[in-house]
Amino acid sequence: MSAYAFQQSHVPAPNRPQGGLVRGVLLGLIPLALLLALVLAALLLTALTRQLTAASGFLTQQQVSLIVLIAGLGLAAVVYSVALVLTVRHVASWQPGGTQARAALLALGITALIVVSPVLLVIVLPQTPAP
């Protein structure tokens, strides 16, 4: 084997995705996984602060829990947005129309549907019963 053939066989092609359909789907689900992890962490931290401030009185406990919950969910929204933008940029660098890019975009669409589904549920199922 010549040195030229050895060098050519070990040089990856530029902008050519390694992997396939599974890698695209996993990359598309990264924003959802980050969002779920941060929302879970925010809820657990809120429960912990409620227990730590239980002796301080109800008003203090309520204010501290609300501040922690809003900060945690705000951080989760920011991290989700950044992860979404980075994922879309990563997918845009791949071959347009490739199976890996399609799989990633499909996973991003499913992620968006999961994130929007509570809002759709509130719109479709009103809390007040019909007269």
Q: Layout of helices and strands, plus pairs?
A:
Blueprint: H1 3-9, H2 21-28, H3 30-52, H4 58-92, H5 99-124
Helix pairs in contact: 2-5, 3-4, 4-5
Alpha-beta content class = mainly alpha
Query: Stretches where pLDDT falls below 50 for ≥5 residues?
Result: none
Structural shape = elongated
Q: Total strand count, please?
A: 0
What's the number of helices?
5
Task: Report Rg.
Answer: 23 Å
Largest sheet geometry: none
Describe the structure.
By secondary structure, the chain is an all-alpha fold. The protein has one domain. Helices cover 76% and strands 0% of the residues. The protein is built from 5 helices and no strands. The chain has helices spanning 3-9, 21-28, 30-52, 58-92, 99-124. It is elongated and about 75 Å long. 12% of the residues are buried. The mean pLDDT is 84.
Would you summarize the structure shown here?
With 131 residues, the chain is an all-alpha fold. 76% of the residues lie in helices and 0% in strands.
Overview features:
131 residues; mainly alpha; 5 helices; 0% strand; elongated
